[in-house]
Amino acid sequence: MSQCCLVNSTTVVTARVPPHTPTLPPLPVYHHAIEVLPTFRSLFQPKTIRSLGKDIIMGLAVTDRVRGQRSHYPRGCGSRVLKSQSSSMNSQVLPQKFKIFIHVGCAKAASTTLQKHLFDKHSEINNLGTYPTGNLGKDSSEINWDCIYLRDEKLKKFYYNLVALDGLEYRSSGNLELYQESIKPYLKAEQINLFSSERFTSVLFSYNDIKSKAERLKEIFPEARIIIVLRNQLNMIISQYRDHPFDPRCVKVGQPVSIDNWIQIALDDNLTKYFSSLDYYQILSLYSELFGKKNVGVFLFEELVYKPDYFAEQLSDFLGINPETTKSVLLNKHENASVSHRYNIYRMLVRRRLFPNLNSLKLLPKSVRNNLLNYLKEGQKKDYQISMAMQEKVSDRLAASNNKLQQEYGLNLSSYNYPL
Question: 3-state SS of the chain: helix, strand, coil percent to 5?
Protein backbone atom coordinates (compact mmCIF):
# COMPACT_ATOMS: atom_id res chain seq x y z
CA MET A 1 0.00 0.00 0.00
CA SER A 2 1.17 3.54 -0.70
CA GLN A 3 0.04 6.87 0.65
CA CYS A 4 -0.66 9.99 -1.29
CA CYS A 5 -2.38 13.23 -0.37
CA LEU A 6 -4.08 16.18 -1.95
CA VAL A 7 -3.43 19.65 -0.51
CA ASN A 8 -5.72 22.57 -1.18
CA SER A 9 -6.32 25.88 0.55
CA THR A 10 -8.65 24.33 3.09
CA THR A 11 -7.51 20.94 4.38
CA VAL A 12 -5.05 18.12 4.00
CA VAL A 13 -6.61 14.68 3.56
CA THR A 14 -4.53 11.54 3.31
CA ALA A 15 -5.82 8.35 1.71
CA ARG A 16 -4.33 4.88 1.42
CA VAL A 17 -4.48 3.85 -2.22
CA PRO A 18 -4.09 0.24 -3.38
CA PRO A 19 -1.19 -0.27 -5.83
CA HIS A 20 -3.50 -1.34 -8.66
CA THR A 21 -5.69 1.79 -8.42
CA PRO A 22 -4.00 3.71 -11.28
CA THR A 23 -5.13 1.03 -13.75
CA LEU A 24 -8.82 1.33 -12.90
CA PRO A 25 -11.01 2.32 -15.83
CA PRO A 26 -12.79 5.69 -15.66
CA LEU A 27 -16.33 4.37 -15.14
CA PRO A 28 -15.67 2.38 -11.93
CA VAL A 29 -13.75 5.37 -10.61
CA TYR A 30 -16.79 7.55 -11.24
CA HIS A 31 -19.11 5.14 -9.46
CA HIS A 32 -16.69 4.77 -6.54
CA ALA A 33 -16.56 8.55 -6.16
CA ILE A 34 -20.36 8.76 -6.11
CA GLU A 35 -20.49 6.01 -3.47
CA VAL A 36 -17.96 7.75 -1.26
CA LEU A 37 -19.64 11.14 -1.56
CA PRO A 38 -23.41 10.53 -1.60
CA THR A 39 -24.17 13.78 0.24
CA PHE A 40 -22.45 15.85 -2.46
CA ARG A 41 -24.24 14.56 -5.59
CA SER A 42 -25.94 17.92 -6.01
CA LEU A 43 -22.62 19.77 -5.87
CA PHE A 44 -20.91 18.00 -8.78
CA GLN A 45 -22.01 17.18 -12.32
CA PRO A 46 -21.00 13.71 -13.61
CA LYS A 47 -18.79 15.26 -16.24
CA THR A 48 -16.86 17.17 -13.64
CA ILE A 49 -16.44 14.12 -11.43
CA ARG A 50 -15.20 12.01 -14.37
CA SER A 51 -12.55 14.57 -15.08
CA LEU A 52 -11.28 14.40 -11.53
CA GLY A 53 -10.57 10.68 -11.93
CA LYS A 54 -7.91 9.34 -9.68
CA ASP A 55 -7.52 12.68 -7.86
CA ILE A 56 -10.85 12.11 -6.11
CA ILE A 57 -9.72 8.74 -4.76
CA MET A 58 -6.34 10.10 -3.69
CA GLY A 59 -7.93 12.73 -1.42
CA LEU A 60 -10.64 15.27 -1.11
CA ALA A 61 -11.52 18.25 1.09
CA VAL A 62 -14.90 19.77 0.58
CA THR A 63 -16.50 22.73 2.23
CA ASP A 64 -20.12 21.96 2.99
CA ARG A 65 -21.73 25.24 2.02
CA VAL A 66 -25.21 23.80 2.16
CA ARG A 67 -25.09 23.68 5.98
CA GLY A 68 -22.63 26.50 6.43
CA GLN A 69 -20.22 24.26 8.32
CA ARG A 70 -16.86 22.77 7.37
CA SER A 71 -16.83 18.99 7.17
CA HIS A 72 -13.65 16.92 7.34
CA TYR A 73 -13.95 13.32 6.26
CA PRO A 74 -11.56 10.70 7.65
CA ARG A 75 -9.31 8.49 5.65
CA GLY A 76 -10.75 5.32 4.20
CA CYS A 77 -14.37 6.26 4.95
CA GLY A 78 -16.97 4.30 3.04
CA SER A 79 -20.58 5.25 2.36
CA ARG A 80 -21.80 3.60 5.61
CA VAL A 81 -19.46 5.72 7.76
CA LEU A 82 -20.35 8.91 5.95
CA LYS A 83 -24.06 8.23 6.36
CA SER A 84 -23.63 7.81 10.10
CA GLN A 85 -21.52 10.95 10.35
CA SER A 86 -24.00 12.95 8.32
CA SER A 87 -26.86 11.71 10.48
CA SER A 88 -25.13 12.77 13.69
CA MET A 89 -24.38 16.19 12.24
CA ASN A 90 -27.98 16.76 11.20
CA SER A 91 -29.56 15.59 14.45
CA GLN A 92 -29.75 17.86 17.51
CA VAL A 93 -29.40 16.18 20.94
CA LEU A 94 -31.77 18.00 23.28
CA PRO A 95 -30.86 18.25 26.99
CA GLN A 96 -32.91 16.10 29.31
CA LYS A 97 -35.86 17.92 30.83
CA PHE A 98 -36.11 17.85 34.61
CA LYS A 99 -39.03 19.06 36.71
CA ILE A 100 -37.63 21.31 39.44
CA PHE A 101 -39.55 22.81 42.35
CA ILE A 102 -38.16 25.07 45.06
CA HIS A 103 -39.82 25.49 48.44
CA VAL A 104 -38.67 28.92 49.68
CA GLY A 105 -40.54 29.18 52.99
CA CYS A 106 -41.84 30.93 54.85
CA ALA A 107 -40.14 30.34 58.17
CA LYS A 108 -42.48 29.24 60.99
CA ALA A 109 -44.96 27.91 58.39
CA ALA A 110 -44.60 24.12 58.71
CA SER A 111 -41.29 24.00 56.84
CA THR A 112 -39.79 21.22 58.97
CA THR A 113 -42.96 19.13 58.74
CA LEU A 114 -42.98 19.40 54.95
CA GLN A 115 -39.25 18.73 54.67
CA LYS A 116 -39.15 15.65 56.91
CA HIS A 117 -42.40 14.05 55.85
CA LEU A 118 -43.84 15.17 52.50
CA PHE A 119 -40.66 16.01 50.59
CA ASP A 120 -38.62 13.14 52.00
CA LYS A 121 -41.26 10.39 51.95
CA HIS A 122 -43.45 10.92 48.90
CA SER A 123 -42.52 8.32 46.27
CA GLU A 124 -42.84 10.82 43.41
CA ILE A 125 -40.42 13.35 44.93
CA ASN A 126 -36.65 13.28 44.59
CA ASN A 127 -35.81 15.19 47.76
CA LEU A 128 -32.79 17.50 47.46
CA GLY A 129 -33.96 19.88 50.17
CA THR A 130 -32.54 20.67 53.58
CA TYR A 131 -33.34 18.22 56.37
CA PRO A 132 -33.48 19.75 59.89
CA THR A 133 -32.13 17.73 62.82
CA GLY A 134 -31.61 20.30 65.59
CA ASN A 135 -34.58 22.63 65.96
CA LEU A 136 -35.17 24.56 69.17
CA GLY A 137 -38.71 23.24 69.33
CA LYS A 138 -39.68 19.67 70.06
CA ASP A 139 -39.14 17.39 67.06
CA SER A 140 -40.06 13.77 66.60
CA SER A 141 -37.25 11.28 67.07
CA GLU A 142 -37.54 10.30 63.41
CA ILE A 143 -34.48 11.21 61.34
CA ASN A 144 -33.64 9.85 57.91
CA TRP A 145 -29.86 9.79 58.00
CA ASP A 146 -29.83 8.35 54.48
CA CYS A 147 -31.33 11.47 52.87
CA ILE A 148 -29.03 13.20 50.41
CA TYR A 149 -28.73 16.43 52.41
CA LEU A 150 -27.39 14.68 55.51
CA ARG A 151 -24.98 12.53 53.48
CA ASP A 152 -23.51 15.07 51.08
CA GLU A 153 -21.41 17.94 52.40
CA LYS A 154 -21.38 19.53 48.96
CA LEU A 155 -25.16 19.85 49.00
CA LYS A 156 -24.94 21.49 52.42
CA LYS A 157 -22.30 23.86 51.04
CA PHE A 158 -24.54 24.64 48.06
CA TYR A 159 -27.35 25.75 50.36
CA TYR A 160 -25.00 27.66 52.65
CA ASN A 161 -23.68 29.65 49.71
CA LEU A 162 -27.21 30.44 48.53
CA VAL A 163 -28.66 31.65 51.84
CA ALA A 164 -25.73 32.82 53.97
CA LEU A 165 -23.16 34.58 51.79
CA ASP A 166 -23.39 38.27 51.03
CA GLY A 167 -23.06 39.64 47.51
CA LEU A 168 -19.28 39.77 47.19
CA GLU A 169 -18.75 36.44 48.94
CA TYR A 170 -21.29 34.76 46.72
CA ARG A 171 -19.66 36.10 43.54
CA SER A 172 -16.46 34.25 44.38
CA SER A 173 -18.11 31.12 45.78
CA GLY A 174 -18.35 29.24 42.47
CA ASN A 175 -21.81 28.04 43.45
CA LEU A 176 -23.06 27.64 39.88
CA GLU A 177 -20.09 25.42 39.07
CA LEU A 178 -20.68 23.49 42.31
CA TYR A 179 -24.25 22.87 41.21
CA GLN A 180 -23.26 21.74 37.70
CA GLU A 181 -20.55 19.38 38.93
CA SER A 182 -21.92 17.98 42.19
CA ILE A 183 -25.65 18.67 42.57
CA LYS A 184 -27.10 18.39 39.08
CA PRO A 185 -26.14 14.68 38.76
CA TYR A 186 -28.71 13.97 41.48
CA LEU A 187 -31.59 15.13 39.28
CA LYS A 188 -34.05 12.48 38.10
CA ALA A 189 -36.33 12.63 35.07
CA GLU A 190 -38.86 10.14 36.45
CA GLN A 191 -39.59 12.17 39.63
CA ILE A 192 -40.03 15.81 40.48
CA ASN A 193 -36.82 17.26 41.94
CA LEU A 194 -37.48 19.32 45.03
CA PHE A 195 -35.16 21.82 46.70
CA SER A 196 -36.19 23.40 50.00
CA SER A 197 -35.00 25.99 52.48
CA GLU A 198 -37.15 28.49 54.36
CA ARG A 199 -34.10 30.73 54.63
CA PHE A 200 -34.62 31.93 51.07
CA THR A 201 -37.35 34.21 52.47
CA SER A 202 -36.01 34.56 56.02
CA VAL A 203 -33.70 37.26 57.36
CA LEU A 204 -32.91 36.50 61.02
CA PHE A 205 -30.56 33.57 60.42
CA SER A 206 -29.44 34.14 56.84
CA TYR A 207 -28.30 36.82 54.42
CA ASN A 208 -31.07 39.39 54.72
CA ASP A 209 -31.33 40.42 51.06
CA ILE A 210 -34.34 38.40 49.91
CA LYS A 211 -34.14 39.78 46.37
CA SER A 212 -30.52 38.67 45.90
CA LYS A 213 -31.30 35.17 47.13
CA ALA A 214 -34.21 34.90 44.70
CA GLU A 215 -31.97 36.03 41.82
CA ARG A 216 -29.42 33.39 42.75
CA LEU A 217 -32.12 30.75 42.42
CA LYS A 218 -33.15 32.15 39.04
CA GLU A 219 -29.56 31.96 37.78
CA ILE A 220 -29.23 28.29 38.70
CA PHE A 221 -32.82 27.15 38.13
CA PRO A 222 -34.24 29.39 35.38
CA GLU A 223 -37.30 27.18 34.74
CA ALA A 224 -38.11 26.14 38.32
CA ARG A 225 -41.51 26.38 39.95
CA ILE A 226 -41.77 28.00 43.37
CA ILE A 227 -43.64 26.84 46.48
CA ILE A 228 -44.32 29.31 49.29
CA VAL A 229 -46.42 28.77 52.41
CA LEU A 230 -47.72 31.91 54.14
CA ARG A 231 -48.87 32.41 57.72
CA ASN A 232 -50.80 35.14 59.52
CA GLN A 233 -48.05 37.62 60.33
CA LEU A 234 -49.23 38.27 63.90
CA ASN A 235 -49.15 34.56 64.70
CA MET A 236 -45.81 34.21 62.93
CA ILE A 237 -44.33 36.98 65.07
CA ILE A 238 -45.53 35.25 68.23
CA SER A 239 -44.04 31.94 67.08
CA GLN A 240 -40.76 33.61 66.13
CA TYR A 241 -40.61 35.44 69.44
CA ARG A 242 -41.35 32.24 71.37
CA ASP A 243 -38.34 30.64 69.69
CA HIS A 244 -36.10 33.67 70.20
CA PRO A 245 -37.35 36.12 72.87
CA PHE A 246 -34.21 38.20 72.46
CA ASP A 247 -33.30 41.47 70.79
CA PRO A 248 -34.10 40.81 67.08
CA ARG A 249 -31.08 42.83 65.97
CA CYS A 250 -28.97 39.89 67.13
CA VAL A 251 -31.11 36.99 68.30
CA LYS A 252 -28.10 34.73 68.81
CA VAL A 253 -26.54 36.81 71.62
CA GLY A 254 -29.04 39.61 72.30
CA GLN A 255 -30.65 40.20 75.68
CA PRO A 256 -34.22 39.14 76.49
CA VAL A 257 -36.96 41.68 75.61
CA SER A 258 -40.74 41.73 75.85
CA ILE A 259 -42.76 40.81 72.78
CA ASP A 260 -43.96 44.43 72.24
CA ASN A 261 -40.39 45.68 72.49
CA TRP A 262 -39.29 42.94 70.11
CA ILE A 263 -41.80 44.13 67.51
CA GLN A 264 -40.95 47.80 68.01
CA ILE A 265 -37.24 47.14 67.51
CA ALA A 266 -37.98 45.19 64.33
CA LEU A 267 -40.19 48.01 63.03
CA ASP A 268 -37.65 50.74 63.78
CA ASP A 269 -34.42 49.05 62.77
CA ASN A 270 -33.85 49.17 59.00
CA LEU A 271 -30.91 46.79 59.18
CA THR A 272 -32.98 43.95 60.65
CA LYS A 273 -35.35 43.88 57.64
CA TYR A 274 -37.61 41.51 59.54
CA PHE A 275 -40.79 43.16 58.33
CA SER A 276 -39.58 42.85 54.75
CA SER A 277 -39.84 39.09 55.22
CA LEU A 278 -43.48 39.58 56.28
CA ASP A 279 -44.40 41.66 53.22
CA TYR A 280 -45.79 38.69 51.32
CA TYR A 281 -47.12 40.65 48.38
CA GLN A 282 -43.68 42.07 47.58
CA ILE A 283 -42.06 38.66 47.94
CA LEU A 284 -44.61 37.02 45.64
CA SER A 285 -44.29 39.86 43.14
CA LEU A 286 -40.52 39.32 43.10
CA TYR A 287 -40.77 35.57 42.47
CA SER A 288 -43.58 36.04 39.94
CA GLU A 289 -41.43 38.51 38.02
CA LEU A 290 -38.47 36.13 38.01
CA PHE A 291 -40.22 32.80 37.37
CA GLY A 292 -43.66 33.76 36.04
CA LYS A 293 -46.82 34.05 38.10
CA LYS A 294 -48.17 30.68 36.91
CA ASN A 295 -45.02 29.04 38.28
CA VAL A 296 -45.47 30.37 41.82
CA GLY A 297 -47.70 28.24 44.05
CA VAL A 298 -49.04 30.05 47.14
CA PHE A 299 -50.46 28.08 50.06
CA LEU A 300 -51.68 28.95 53.55
CA PHE A 301 -50.35 27.45 56.77
CA GLU A 302 -53.79 27.82 58.29
CA GLU A 303 -55.27 25.49 55.68
CA LEU A 304 -52.70 22.85 56.57
CA VAL A 305 -53.85 23.14 60.20
CA TYR A 306 -57.62 23.43 59.73
CA LYS A 307 -58.19 21.88 56.27
CA PRO A 308 -55.34 19.38 55.86
CA ASP A 309 -57.00 17.40 53.06
CA TYR A 310 -57.68 20.55 51.05
CA PHE A 311 -54.10 21.75 51.61
CA ALA A 312 -52.73 18.36 50.49
CA GLU A 313 -54.90 18.35 47.36
CA GLN A 314 -53.95 21.89 46.35
CA LEU A 315 -50.23 21.36 46.90
CA SER A 316 -50.28 17.96 45.16
CA ASP A 317 -52.06 19.47 42.16
CA PHE A 318 -49.37 22.13 41.84
CA LEU A 319 -46.58 19.54 42.18
CA GLY A 320 -48.29 17.00 39.93
CA ILE A 321 -48.09 14.19 42.51
CA ASN A 322 -50.57 11.75 44.04
CA PRO A 323 -52.70 13.64 46.62
CA GLU A 324 -53.62 10.50 48.57
CA THR A 325 -49.95 9.80 49.26
CA THR A 326 -49.52 13.43 50.31
CA LYS A 327 -52.40 13.12 52.79
CA SER A 328 -50.97 9.88 54.14
CA VAL A 329 -47.42 11.12 54.81
CA LEU A 330 -48.65 14.37 56.41
CA LEU A 331 -51.36 12.80 58.58
CA ASN A 332 -50.96 13.93 62.22
CA LYS A 333 -47.41 15.15 61.60
CA HIS A 334 -46.10 18.16 63.49
CA GLU A 335 -42.40 18.91 63.71
CA ASN A 336 -40.61 21.72 65.57
CA ALA A 337 -43.43 22.15 68.08
CA SER A 338 -43.28 25.42 70.00
CA VAL A 339 -40.50 25.99 72.53
CA SER A 340 -41.71 25.32 76.05
CA HIS A 341 -41.95 28.09 78.63
CA ARG A 342 -39.64 26.07 80.87
CA TYR A 343 -36.92 25.99 78.22
CA ASN A 344 -37.23 29.71 77.53
CA ILE A 345 -36.83 30.53 81.23
CA TYR A 346 -33.61 28.55 81.23
CA ARG A 347 -32.37 30.31 78.08
CA MET A 348 -33.14 33.75 79.50
CA LEU A 349 -31.22 32.93 82.67
CA VAL A 350 -28.28 31.82 80.57
CA ARG A 351 -28.33 35.09 78.58
CA ARG A 352 -28.35 37.07 81.82
CA ARG A 353 -25.48 34.89 83.07
CA LEU A 354 -27.51 33.74 86.06
CA PHE A 355 -27.39 30.05 85.15
CA PRO A 356 -24.70 27.88 83.52
CA ASN A 357 -25.13 27.03 79.87
CA LEU A 358 -26.29 23.48 79.34
CA ASN A 359 -23.61 22.99 76.71
CA SER A 360 -20.92 23.81 79.27
CA LEU A 361 -21.97 20.98 81.59
CA LYS A 362 -19.55 18.62 79.88
CA LEU A 363 -18.67 16.85 83.09
CA LEU A 364 -22.10 15.24 83.08
CA PRO A 365 -22.56 12.05 81.09
CA LYS A 366 -24.09 12.64 77.67
CA SER A 367 -27.22 10.69 78.57
CA VAL A 368 -27.78 12.94 81.60
CA ARG A 369 -27.33 16.09 79.53
CA ASN A 370 -29.77 14.79 76.91
CA ASN A 371 -32.34 13.89 79.55
CA LEU A 372 -32.02 17.34 81.08
CA LEU A 373 -32.45 18.99 77.67
CA ASN A 374 -35.52 16.86 76.94
CA TYR A 375 -36.99 17.80 80.31
CA LEU A 376 -36.51 21.49 79.59
CA LYS A 377 -38.13 21.19 76.16
CA GLU A 378 -41.12 19.31 77.51
CA GLY A 379 -44.06 21.13 78.97
CA GLN A 380 -46.50 23.81 77.94
CA LYS A 381 -45.70 26.74 75.71
CA LYS A 382 -46.46 30.24 76.93
CA ASP A 383 -49.32 32.05 75.25
CA TYR A 384 -47.73 35.41 74.46
CA GLN A 385 -50.07 38.33 73.78
CA ILE A 386 -49.36 41.33 71.56
CA SER A 387 -50.93 44.52 72.86
CA MET A 388 -53.72 46.09 70.80
CA ALA A 389 -51.60 49.18 70.20
CA MET A 390 -48.80 47.08 68.79
CA GLN A 391 -51.22 45.02 66.71
CA GLU A 392 -52.40 48.25 65.10
CA LYS A 393 -48.81 49.19 64.26
CA VAL A 394 -48.27 45.82 62.61
CA SER A 395 -51.54 46.19 60.71
CA ASP A 396 -50.58 49.66 59.52
CA ARG A 397 -47.34 48.22 58.18
CA LEU A 398 -48.82 45.17 56.42
CA ALA A 399 -52.53 45.71 55.69
CA ALA A 400 -52.13 47.32 52.27
CA SER A 401 -49.82 44.52 51.13
CA ASN A 402 -52.18 41.83 52.42
CA ASN A 403 -55.17 43.40 50.66
CA LYS A 404 -53.31 43.32 47.33
CA LEU A 405 -52.30 39.74 48.06
CA GLN A 406 -55.87 38.68 48.74
CA GLN A 407 -57.20 40.32 45.59
CA GLU A 408 -54.53 39.34 43.07
CA TYR A 409 -53.88 35.78 44.27
CA GLY A 410 -57.40 34.89 45.35
CA LEU A 411 -56.38 34.01 48.90
CA ASN A 412 -58.96 33.97 51.67
CA LEU A 413 -56.84 35.86 54.19
CA SER A 414 -59.76 37.45 56.01
CA SER A 415 -60.98 34.02 57.16
CA TYR A 416 -57.75 33.59 59.10
CA ASN A 417 -57.56 37.11 60.55
CA TYR A 418 -54.56 38.34 58.61
CA PRO A 419 -53.93 42.07 59.13
CA LEU A 420 -56.17 43.78 56.56
Answer: 55, 10, 35
Ranking 43-47, 191-195, 387-391 by mean pLDDT, the lowest is: 43-47
Burial bucket for residue 135 (CB in 10 Å: 0-12, 13-18, 19+): middle
How far, in Å, CA of 142 to CA of 152, rounded? 19
User: 226, 216, 347: which is closest to 280 by C-alpha?
Assistant: 226
Question: Distance (Å, rounded) from C-alpha 205 to C-alpha 197?
Answer: 12
- Phi/psi for 241 (5° steps) reads -65, -40
Query: What digits encode the pLDDT tens for the residues 74-131?
Result: 333 333 333 334 333 343 445 678 999 999 999 999 999 999 999 999 999 999 999 9
Please compute the mean of the pLDDT values over residues 19-23 and round it to a whole number: 47
User: What is the 3 state secondary structure string of 160-181?
Assistant: HHHHHCCHHHHHCCCHHHHHHH
Of 9, 23, 10, the residue nearest 57 (C-alpha): 23
**φ, ψ for residue 399, nearest 5 deg:** -60, -45
CA distance 67 to 89: 10
Q: What pTM was computed for the model?
A: 0.74
Counting other chains too, the contacts that 360-367 makes at CB distance below 8 Å and 24 or more residues apart are: none
List the domain boundaries for the chain.
2-90, 99-339+381-416
Residue 57 clears pLDDT 80, i.e. is over it: no
Q: What amino acid is encoded at 217 in this protein?
A: L
Residues 6+ apart with CB under 8 A from 287: 104, 214, 226, 228, 296
Rounded to whole angstroms, the Cα distance separating 142 from 335 reads 10
3-state secondary structure of 280: helix
Check: CB of residue 105 under 8 Å from CB of residue 111: yes
What is the distance between the terminal CA atoms of the chain, rounded to a whole angstrom? 91
Looking at the DSSP assignment, which residues form a beta bridge with residue 299?
A: 229
* Nearest-10 crossing angle of helices 308-319, 323-330: 130
Q: Are 325 and 254 in contact (CB under 8 A)?
A: no
Domain 99-339+381-416 in CATH 3.40.50.300:
yes
Length of the chain: 420
Output DSSP code: residue 65. T
Instruction: Report the C-alpha gap between 208 and 165 in whole angstroms.
Output: 10
